[in-house]
Structure of Polar amino acid transport system substrate-binding protein:
Amino acid sequence: MTESKLASLTLTGLFAFGLLLFSSLASAQQAAPSLPLLFDARERLARPDLSSLVRLRFLTSVDFPPFNFTDQNGKLSGFNVDLAREICSELEISDKCQIQAIPFVDLKDALAASQGDAVIAGLAVTPELRRQFVFSRPYLMLPARFVRNLAAPIDGKTAAALAGRPVGVVRGTVHEAMLAAFFPALKAEPFDTKDALLAALKERKVDAGFADALQLSFWVSSPAAEKCCALFDGPYLSEHFLGEGMTIMLRQKDSVLTSAIDHALATLSRNGRLQEIYLRYFPYGLY
């Protein structure tokens, strides 16, 4: 398995969707569902002493919106960028923190060469990377979701209501495999591309689809969807099919820093600041 981003997103398309969502946040009709708590509330992670830390250099990229990108003013922005700043604030080392963007393909080598201390850029955790690096606890899971055409007469609010109806999915993806494993009774109709799936859903050639919640969340709220569709049931999570989630990658020798970042992530999760960042970039929610 090779390193890859956790979601296949285009810079132009998803960034445009992001701008649309940011501008419409104030007019959202309902509060987005809460971000699932990924840390046990009873677990207490010790806060290591970082007094000897000279600096903490986060490495990211600019091609993974809304997680890390440059905004219209050329400023480095995104969920991961804001989270890195919050981690530094929680650890009381903001004056020692730096966030640098480099090409995605160079992230692994740059960290190995100590040109940075932590990578926060949506790298998928793989066995190969685990042999070289360590990873923080996950701070965000990217679920799968159903999406339905609102004109389809679906009687019910769960996946069981889709029995006997065509459910689109992109051929050869983890979501196709996940749909078959989780919902073997549903009638899957494969498409060659995500765009083909969404076009068929919009034209009601299929009544529903099953795909990455991140992309679906942006699409249903975009002008391209023309208010045809809505997220339906779920979310569905699976480490086997969807991976371990969003994490921060560090060098194996930096165990103290890894523990400190885990402590900060747990605190941000419990005190609601991680939820605030989540709603800032996903006002309509993934869950």
